Amino acid sequence: MPRTSLEPRFQVEHLSVLDAEGRLDAALEPALSADDLKRMYRGMLLGRLLDERMVRLQRQGRIGTFAPIKGQEASQIGSVAALRPTDWMVPSFRETAAMLWRGWPIERMLMFFAGWLEGGQPEPGHNDLPITIPVATQLPHAVGLAYAAQYRGDDVIALVYFGDGATSEGDFHEALNFAGVWHVPVVFLCQNNQWAISVPLKKQTHSRTLAQKALAYGFPGIQVDGNDILAVHAATREAVDRARAGGGPTLIECVTYRLAMHTTADDPTKYRAPEEVAEWERKDPIKRFREYLAKKHLLEDGLDQALEDEIAAAVKRFESMPPPDPLLPFDHVYAVPPAHLVAERQALAAWLAAPTGDGDGTAAEAPSAPPPRSS
Amino acid sequence: MAKLTMVKALNLALLQEMERDEDVIVMGEDVGIDGGVFRVTDDLHRKFASRRVIDTPLAEAAIIGVGIGMAMYGLKPVCEIQFSGFAFQCFHQIENHAARYRLRSQGRFKIQMVVRMPYGGGVRALEHHTESEEQFYAAIPGLKMVIPSGPRNARGLLVSAIRDPDPVIFFESKALYHAAKEDVPDEIEAMPLGRAHVVREGRDLTVIAYGAMLRVAKDVADTLAAEDGAEAEVIDLLTISPLDRETIVDSVKKTGRVVVVHEAMRSFGPGAEIVTSIIEGAFLSLEAPPVRVTASDVPFVGFAREKAYIPDAPRLLAAARRTLAF
């Protein structure tokens, strides 16, 4: 009864097409039209510029806590550009660039981070889920969407975003396991940005890569240079095509870096060295792609200003909106509000209309005084 | 019309809803060839194949999480959690997402999903197999929380739960699964959610019960009529949330006295909300302080000691007599 090795033996690939020095592996260069490339650059730049604007707006108290994407634009645009509009995009909370690509209006992103429920409503007919905040809990939703698409026989796949910290959550493992067993058309897109708030990757996992976690669930995992939009796009397109062709799920680990803070409530200087940040700034995904496009003469003059103007106009539209209706939440707790909710809505409406008198904002009516007791 | 146990009645509801609507799918641990550990999904896999009756991997969070994704696509999953004591491994999916997606998306997404769970004691089962923790779900807006008390209403309520556009937590009493047979119509019968039933009318006292405690309440009402000459009105809640406060308050306005009985623990249990609703709605009609007969605030006791903890007829009778004499 000897001890033997079992097949298959595993391997994890790493894909890089355009490196930080601008060197291109032409054999791996994805086929993208000039228009595609220009749109993708525009998407990255819009993500970056809105990011910077959001941080300023937060500092000015004009929106609430915001999770910046700076540094992760290639991971987001490279991947989301491989989807069809009919496919499902399932974000976590740091996918501003991917969401804008999918058609979320800038105002709606502003609304979300300004604490409006309206920021969670996808555009009519768009197959996007809203931002999910509890880490990794959106992964099973993507698997469910993919199962349903397969069940209905629709030519539709799902792609779900999450970070390196999410790979420690049970929902990550459960979702990958279900996806593997069911062989559903889903792409798991991990943006490994090295830091889960203050906890570095080496404290998150003892795995050599995050991509290899897919292998335990019986489907391929690939690691890509997440700051190389061409590599991200090539890997995602391959995974999307495989899913669409009935080849099941894929895990893609985009090795990238969160150049800014976890959220505007965080101070990263407390836990990481400026040299590390500087090293990753050298690998900036936008700078790299811009040089690639310059060689192809695809850079458009005045794009930065045009995008800044677009953002400024959206901020203006958002800030000139009437204040949110405080009673709206009551309308969407159930399809048909039950009696107690109708009463609570009326009570709050009455209080807001006249914050005096008998009401208190929650009870339908103040208790009336008892009748005199007969002695 | 056939005489069915609650298990068979629930099975009939699933079978008929699956026949009439291809979007209804059943999933959970052992729900396929095994028919579920209590046989509620018996034989469904043969009729509808494994793509509609899914033996899932053993992972509660993903069962509910993928169910939510399916529902957002337009399917109507009926998920089975093998025992309610295991549902804390999917509680975050229920609270964070199932209950909230309609609001988060302002109606763009509905989670038309039923989560079935066996609950309750009295079946000589180990820890995590005997709990009655409906209060956690009843406290979450966006969910409906349903507990049938017999075969016919179990069938009718499950049909409505499957058709309801909001997520429904559906507790099934293990003690009632095979306890009694009841006439259940062959044709589909749907019973409205959110409505309590007055199962016995009376003028002297209101007894509010649900699930396995309904039998106890009816027995006590019989005893009170026979031995005390007191007529108890018995309310079967059927839906814990949203609570049918109107039926409760109307009854107490008439009787002036009320006892609430449940298997769940006492503090912050359903009785607390029910009694508060009575105080808010019928304070001036009360002739005696409302009384709760419940399990004690002990997380679990083991089935060797269980009999001392689960409310039974002698305890409810004593409480009812004390209330009547106040």
Give the structure's gist in a few sentences.
The complex is a heterodimer of chains A (375) and B (326). Chain A has 12 helices and 8 strands. Chain A is α/β, with parallel strands linked by helices and 375 residues long.
Structure report:
The complex is a heterodimer of chains A (375) and B (326). Chain A has 375 residues and is an alpha/beta fold. In chain A, 39% of the residues lie in helices and 9% in strands. Chain A is built from twelve helices and eight strands. In chain A, strands 1-7-8-4-3-2 form a six-stranded parallel β-sheet, with helices on both faces. In chain A, strand 5 and strand 6 form a beta hairpin. Chain A starts with 12 loop residues before the first strand and ends in a 22-residue tail after the last helix. The mean pLDDT of chain A is 94. Chain B has 326 residues and is α/β, with parallel strands linked by helices. The termini of chain B are far apart. A seven-stranded mixed β-sheet of chain B has the order 3-2-4-5-7-6-12, with helices on both faces. Chain B has a five-stranded mixed β-sheet with strand order 9-11-10-13-14, sandwiched between helices. A two-stranded antiparallel sheet of chain B has the order 1-8. In chain B, strand 2, helix 2 and strand 3 form a beta-alpha-beta unit. The interface between A and B is large, with 47 and 48 residues.
Shape of chain B: globular
Helix content of chain A: 25-40%
Kindly state the number of beta strands of chain B.
Answer: 14
**CA-CA gap between termini of chain A:** 96 Å
How much of the polypeptide of chain A forms β-strand, as a percent range?
5-15%
Unreliable residue runs of chain A: none
Mean pLDDT across all residues of chain A, rounded? 94
Structural class of chain A: alpha/beta
**What's the total helix number of chain A?**
12
Structural class of chain B: alpha/beta
